[in-house]
Amino acid sequence: MKQHNNAVINIVLVALFTSITFVATSIQVPMPALIGKPFVHL
Known about the structure:
- Helices cover 60% and strands 14% of the residues.
- It is of the alpha+beta class.
- It has one domain (2-41).
- It has a two-stranded antiparallel sheet.
- The longest helix has 25 residues, at 2-26.
- The chain is rod-shaped.
- The N and C termini lie far apart (39 Å).
């Protein structure tokens, strides 16, 4: 039973970190610049 719980926890953690990574890479912050439109990805 303990091994089954560890597997479920690992799957949940992988899904959590994947969703956090997706959200963090989709946030774009525009910065003022003389040429072009640079963005900082958080």
